[in-house]
Amino acid sequence: METILTRYRNVTILAAVLFAQVLGLAIQVKRTSENESTRLIRIWTVSTVTPLEKAIMWFRGGTWNLWRNYVYLRGVRQENRELKDEIERLRLEQVRLSDDAEQARRLQLLLEFKEKFISKTTAAQVIGSSGSEQSRSVYIDKGKDDGIEKDMPVITADGVIGKVLRVFGSSAQVLLINDQTSGVGALLEKSRLQGVLRGTPAGEVVLEKVMSDEQVQPGERVLTSGGDQIFPKGLPVGTVTKVSPGPELFLNIRVRPSANLSKLEEVLVITQQDEKAPSVADTAPQRAVDILAQRLPSVPDKPAADTSKPAANGGGTQTPVKTPAATPDAAKPAVATAKAPGQTPKPAANVPKPISEPPPADSQQGGPQ
């Protein structure tokens, strides 16, 4: 390397000087376009780097398209097939649940069962809470003046939170479901097992009175059963989080409330409930077969046979007699009666007599004139 630099020393120095001069000129010289001036060195730099950047972006875009259109979508067909199977399964489940619901409504109508439905609620705001850990309750800004009464259920959009414990003039105290003195009739959504939902001194919620030989899975929803005559049936209460053996052959079922009981702001007080029995229109939906049977034309009844015959000496109105259409069986005997040469014709067997014969001349007159 030193030999080359030593041999071409003058040329190397000249090239370095020329490069420095060109670089200095490029830094000093500016190109003006559309009221903007740009240094020549920047233009050269951009022109040199742009093809390299384009090549990098092209390579990046091609790699991304390959990943998105092939590698990433490789399992989409299988996923689509699984989703279709899931849709079909859900459709069958929907049909089964619809049949079960219709059957349940029919049984309710048959046994004259009545259910309670929420017909009127009053919105209230939480204005305070109990200051003791042993008593878990809140105070709302609606009371006796607003139609609030004791033991009225209190709910939120997420689920049940408690019932009215004490009523004052313009406020009321609500006992939460995680209080150890509370009690809510509840049932499990899937297994339909019933129990009593109570609070613990630690502020947790447990479902009691469920036998240990029953199968309860974590994650199952807990709903109100309506057996306490306070909460309407079917309101969400919480979700099972843990199941363990408890005392006296009962399960210890821990429940996570649906509503956040520690962050209550607005609540709804159910002030009126209506008892309603399913109507006949709800319990007896028409089947598709019945609808089609109503739309199709019905078969008319067979008319009675007319045994009346026209009188020989008619007088009055003449009854027309229809001639039945010829049938293949009636045409065959007629062919058999044809006369062959050299033979005496024989009467054909089972030849029916003509039904329609012209009436006598005097019967056509219609009586004396």
Shape: elongated
Question: Spans of 5+ residues with little confidence (pLDDT < 50)?
Answer: 309-352, 361-369
**Helix-residue proportion:** 25-40%
Task: Determine the structural class based on helices, strands and strand pairing.
Answer: alpha+beta
The first-level CATH class of the largest domain is given as Mainly Beta
User: What is the CATH superfamily label of the largest domain?
Assistant: Rod shape-determining protein MreC, domain 1
What Rg is obtained from the alpha carbons, in whole angstroms? 49 Å
Give the total of domains: 3
Main pleated sheet: 6 strands, antiparallel, barrel
Beta-strand content bin: 15-25%
CATH architecture of the largest domain: Beta Barrel
Instruction: Supply the number of helical segments.
Output: 7
What's the end-to-end separation, in Å?
154 Å
Strand order of the largest sheet: 3-4-7-6-5-14
Mean pLDDT: 76
| CATH fold descriptor of the largest domain | Thrombin, subunit H
What is the tally of beta strands? 14
Instruction: Spell the H/E element sequence.
Output: HHEEHHEEEEEEEEEEEEHHH
